[in-house]
Amino acid sequence: MTLTIIRNADDLSARYDIAIVGAGPAGMAAATECARLGLAVVVFDENAEAGGQIYRAIERNTRAGRPYLGSDYGRGAGLWAAFCATAASHVPSAAVWSLEQQGEGAAALAELRVSVAGRSRIVLARRVVLATGATERPMPVRGWTLPGVMSVGAAQIALKASALLPEGPVVLTGSGPLLYLYADQVLAAGGTIDAILETTPRRNWLRAAPHVFSFLASPYAWKGLGLMLRVRRAVRVFRAVTALEITGKDRADGVTFMAGGKTVSLPARSVFLHQGVIPHANLANAAGCALAWNDRQKCFAPVVDGEGRSTRPAIFIAGDGNGIAGAVVAEFDGRIAGIAAGLEVLGAGSSEASRRFVRLRKRALRGRAFIDLAYQPALSFRAPAAGDVVACRCEEVSVGAIREAAALGVAGPNQLKTMLRCGMGPCQGRMCAATVTELLADAQQRHPADVGTYRLRPPIKPVPLCEIAALPHTSEAVYAVTGGHSGH
Amino acid sequence: MFRKIENPKDLVTIVVDGRELEVDATASVAAALLGAGMATVRRSVVTDQPRGPYCLMGICFECLVTIDGVQNRQACMVPVRDGMTISSQRGARTTQGGGR
């Protein structure tokens, strides 16, 4: 058996047992388990190569070729090899732009609309597993739209996929383990990091302290400490940084911030921001899956049961897309959801393999609470006070405009769209939704769960109208427009 | 704003705003532009500010460029191809010429 790679919309079947969206650790693991059950499986992935963000370019990278990526990255190679040995179909560069559930309960079907190489098709699946992963939490600061400023994740993608090292002076800033992981990889690859500005509030460590023993029992602990010590020997680190801004006219040329009671300015040509990751749940949101506020991770995440079932019976959600837990947990989560979805299609009962993966997932989750609390970004970086900071980058809506609307009593993020066009640009709220929820909550003294988030509608990725128009229409749709029963 | 630390095995030629560039055949358009020293790829829609790739993973839509005549393509999601023509954008996409 080998994986079938599909690069043309015409080569898609109209119907599969299982459709999986995303080919990162959760998606590849779910596909592998479903294929082992003998089911017809298709994996749609927006990227040109499998691996997701964590195992970016895993099809090409070898340990010998790019050793600086480290041993955790190497885990992806086994996942990719197992996925390649299945009879599943993998569709790279495929944008799933709509997902709807037809029918209810056990008979429910998922209807996906997907764009492949410039043409869209409707694909039906008995069950769909969304493995859409995470995105970086926005870090709105003054100057963050300047060229030369990117997310740390983006800089790491440039390293993993294209062996690119940043031009100096390089400044990393924000909160979370990725700052140190990326710095370590850059140093190992022969690059330079000039400064790390940690924005993590000091009091976080007190709140995280009760979880420290569970963290110390996790594999992250010693690896993480070693990595931090290595980086700190080579890089100037500022702690508890506040009042950060990026300076420059047509591109970034420096950073200014407060640390230790002093204002510091440093030159910088490459400024990389990061304050953790949040679920990328746009497709789940648009498909009508319920979301819930996670107060420890300060984000909305789809509601799922222990096997990844969302509140829509045809839709399972696995991996970081249902709550942030990292690549190893995502892999087990994908296996568990894949088996559960597969058994539903087969009408079969429970599985011994799945119980084993539940135990492995539980073990891999150790230390997560500590990491969540220790690196929880400060409110001043999630919901900034400075009115001139850009919150919605597409429509260029400022924090001040949103706070003004909040003072006028805007009901929530959806009404904010009609008032300010906030969240209505091409990214469809991916870059501002988290900020908007927290700004409204802060300004109106409401709970973020009560504020809510944008209600999204398909297409969740921009698709040319001609592609939508060329889709086959249902007889109901033809009747609604023409009043007759002619074909399209 | 980046430098390459490997010699690419295969190169392709792309044309960026009329300038020919030899780039790594495995790169995305955005990675190719960043590797060639281009941090700015467009001017923003509302206030005409310079913008460049931000997330490199299809989320932020900051790297929108015109590729082979099609406007608003995400440069980070499109692999380079030999002979590809790329132009930077100013403001919103237009409905005349260059659309599909």
Feature tags:
heterodimer, A: about 500 residues, alpha/beta, FAD/NAD(P)-binding domain, Arc Repressor Mutant, subunit A, 3 domains, 5-stranded parallel beta sheet, 23 strands, globular, B: mainly beta, Ubiquitin-like (UB roll), 5-stranded mixed beta sheet, 3-stranded mixed beta sheet, 9 strands
Give structural notes:
The complex is a heterodimer of chains A (about 500) and B (about 100). Chain A contains 18 helices and 23 strands. Chain A folds into three domains: about 5-135 and about 280-350, FAD/NAD(P)-binding domain, CATH 3.50.50; about 140-275, FAD/NAD(P)-binding domain (3-Layer(bba) Sandwich), CATH 3.50.50; about 385-450, Arc Repressor Mutant, subunit A. Chain A is globular. Chain A has about 500 residues and is of the alpha/beta class. In chain A, the strands form six sheets. In chain A, strands 1, 2, 3, 4, 5, 6, 7 and 21 form an eight-stranded mixed beta sheet that branches. Chain A has a five-stranded parallel beta sheet with strand order 9-17-11-12-13. In chain A, strands 14-15-16 form a three-stranded antiparallel beta sheet, with no helix packed on it. The model of chain A has no long low-confidence stretch (mean pLDDT about 95). The two termini of chain A are about 40 Å apart. Chain B has about 100 residues and is mainly β. Helices cover about 5% and strands about 35% of the residues of chain B. Chain B is built from one helix and nine strands, in the order βββαββββββ. In chain B, a hairpin with a 2-residue loop joins strand 6 (about 65) and strand 7. The termini of chain B are far apart. Strand 10 (about 165) of chain A pairs antiparallel with strand 1 (about 1-5) of chain B. Chain A: InterPro entries: BFD-like_2Fe2S-bd_dom_sf, FAD/NAD-bd_sf, FAD/NAD-binding_dom, Metab_Enz_Cyan_OpOx_G3PDH, Opine_Oxase_asu/HCN_bsu, SoxA_A3. Chain A: It comes from Shinella granuli. Chain A: This is Thioredoxin reductase.
